[in-house]
Amino acid sequence: MRTFSLRLLESLAPCEDQLELFRETFGDSAEVTVEAVLKACSVGLDIDWLAPRLPETVRAEYDRVTGSSWAEYDRVRALAWAEYERVTAPAYAEYNRVRNAAYAEYDRVRDAAWAEYDRVTAPAYAEYERVTAAAYAEYERVTAAAWAECDRVRALAWAEYDRVRAECLVRLVLELTVDSPLSS
What we know:
3% strand; 82% helix; 2 strands; flat
């Protein structure tokens, strides 16, 4: 009996969770059987990830066989979905009717509450704005000056970084030998 080893799977560079799931399910190896593949599927191993990594000769046969199976699955799924929609459509329509009516009432009550909220809080908000206006103007004046100084200092530091980076690049390129792939 042929086996599919953990080492072979590792050589194909799967994601870590799939590698761990293989290890938990099969240990160091699994026999290559229909039962083992079905078990792999049932625990969540992604066999579709493996299919494109099959040798081209094997892959063509795999695609041929699974293609017709996929078409049949797609046909059955479409029929089942159509039946699901047929059966659920009346209940969904009734739900929407009830929901829309309830939402309209909610909107009516909410809009009235917002209007009352705005009426009650307007004088307090106006007083808040009046009291904080001078302090906010001073804050903006101070932050504008501080931001300008911050930008000036950062620009100088960036210019120095660019200079050092350029000097380093020039030095390294000049040190390349004639045989280097970058020289010419």
